[in-house]
Amino acid sequence: MKIISVAFNSNFYLEGVNLRKKLFFEGYANAQELIDDAYEKQSKHIIALENNVVIGTGRLTLTKEKAIISQMTVAVEKQKQGVGKSILSTLISIALLSDPITIQLSARISAIPFYLKNNFKPTGKPYASQKTGIPHQLMVFQNQ
Beta strand 120-122 with 102-108: parallel, antiparallel or unpaired? Predict the structure, then answer.
């Protein structure tokens, strides 16, 4: 497996988009609109590749105050094999180079244990995603 940065609208980027649609937005008539939010074009996109097939993806948006990790997903058959940890570690490393005040993400409730193991701490109360209505938790990275 290798983790690489991909250009917006490259073939690997588009494969990552398809993975996000499948795992996050399947069944939503407006799936492409949900992906093409205000951050999509300005964000850094990385993918995990295995045998030239995209098995995971993640997005990093940098602002003056914070780094936002989002739309991180791993193919179902590749979960719990270290792919997500590799993607997350890469996104954190890129974020730290920009010296943000905070690194944050919004985790689905089911993903909280994964992020807790990777030095993220819950902040505030769970809330419903504005895009999907699915419960999420804001989490902030604790650099050690």
Answer: unpaired
